[in-house]
Amino acid sequence: MSSRLPLLAAAFALTFMACSPAMSADADPDAIIKYRKGVMDAIGAKTGALVAILKGDVDLKDALAPNAEALAASSNAAVITGAFRQNTDGQGNEQTKATAKIWEDWDRFEKAANDLQAAALDISKTAAAGELTSFDQLKPVLSQCGVCHKDAGFRN
Q1: What is the helix, strand, coil percentage profile of the chain, to 5?
Q2: Dihedral, CA atoms, 56, 123, 152, 49, nearest 10 degrees?
Q3: By percentage, how much of the chain surpasses pLDDT 70?
Q4: Residue 115: which residues within 8 A CB-CB, separation 6 or more?
Q5: Full set of structural domains in the chain with CATH
Q6: How far apart (Å, rounded) are the C-alpha atoms in residues 87 and 149?
Q7: H or E segment to which residue 154 belongs
Q8: Res 17: pLDDT
Q9: Which end of the chain is more exposed for a tag (fewer CB within 10 A), N or C?
Q10: 3-state SS of 69-131?
Q11: Which helix (H) or strand (E) holds 24?
């Protein structure tokens, strides 16, 4: 399971790099916002699946490792920061919860993306080893989500 993780991460990075010309400064803000939402929704979906399993809401422990692996791939910092590189604050018609603080404090946002990637990789390795057994072990990932969604004010 974990031997595929570097390949998945590389595939995400290559996909992003292949799409990056379309995400230039002249890209349609609505298209960028929709893309960004998709990137973040993937992270949220995999995190939600892990929470449901670890809290015992669903009895799918055999799905822990695949969901953790998908979370790690979805949490690729290059993909996250690439999705936000274009400042769309006040542009387009697409609804977004992203705030101008992302671009005002880009270094902090970039660090948060890198820290999320590291935490997700750790969870994936733990799950692949069959050692992801409690909700508390997921808290480092959830904490990283909170950095952007609460602490830094990157999201309304």
Answers
A1: 75, 0, 25
A2: -30
A3: 83
A4: 144, 147
A5: 2-18+28-83+96-151 (1.20.120.10)
A6: 18
A7: none
A8: 47
A9: C
A10: HHHHHHCCHHHHHHHHCCCCCCCCCCCCCECCHHHHCHHHHHHHHHHHHHHHHHHHHHHHCCC
A11: none
Task: With a cut of 90, say whether residue 15 has pLDDT above it.
Answer: no
Q: What pLDDT, on the 0 to 100 scale, is given for residue 155?
A: 82
Calculate ∠ Cα 130-122-42, nearest 5°: 95
Indicate the angle between helix axes 64-74 and 29-54, nearest 10 degrees: 150
Residue indicated by tokens 């004010």: 153
Residue in the block written with tokens 């270094």: 107
pLDDT digits (tens, 9 = 90+) for 103-150: 999 999 999 999 999 999 999 999 999 999 999 999 999 999 988 888
pLDDT at 3: 58
Structure tokens at 96: 């977004």
**How distant, in Å, are the alpha carbons of 28, 39, 86, 137 from that of 36?**
12, 5, 10, 27
